[in-house]
From TrEMBL:
This is PTS glucitol/sorbitol transporter subunit IIA. Coiled coil: none annotated. PANTHER family: PTS SYSTEM GLUCITOL/SORBITOL-SPECIFIC EIIA COMPONENT, PTS SYSTEM GLUCITOL_SORBITOL-SPECIFIC EIIA COMPONENT. One of its GO terms (molecular function) is protein-N(PI)-phosphohistidine-sugar phosphotransferase activity. InterPro entries: PTS_IIA_glucitol/sorbitol-sp (IPR004716), PTS_IIA_glucitol/sorbitol_sf (IPR036665). One of its GO terms (cellular component) is cytoplasm. GO terms for biological process: phosphoenolpyruvate-dependent sugar phosphotransferase system. Pfam families: PTSIIA_gutA (PF03829). SUPFAM superfamilies: PTSIIA/GutA-like. It comes from Arachnia propionica.
Amino acid sequence: MGYSTTIIEVGPDASDFLAEQMAITFAGNAPEELRSYCFVIDKSELTSPLAVGQPVLIGDQEWRITAIGDVAEKNLGALGHVTLVFDGASEPRLPGALHLSGSHPEPALAAGTRLVIGNA
């Protein structure tokens, strides 16, 4: 498994980014200026490298990684921070982004939802 965690808090402005097909995660130490826009997650350990084609489970929804920004793996492992972009792009538009594709109209991100990156 690459990374497994639970969303513990949803910032009041997180839906603003979801409207742009993005979601920002941070482990409990999200910077105050970003916290209201974040999906705060339990800190977890990244146990294997991120790779294009890996599954990402958001609750019972399956998504696939299509592109990985240069610092996404480092930030996820160190801070629980990554920007999930639900556009299926093959090139990352942000250094800390994971681009995902899936057949769902929108991700099922909510407090209590499990987030698993890689094979469970």
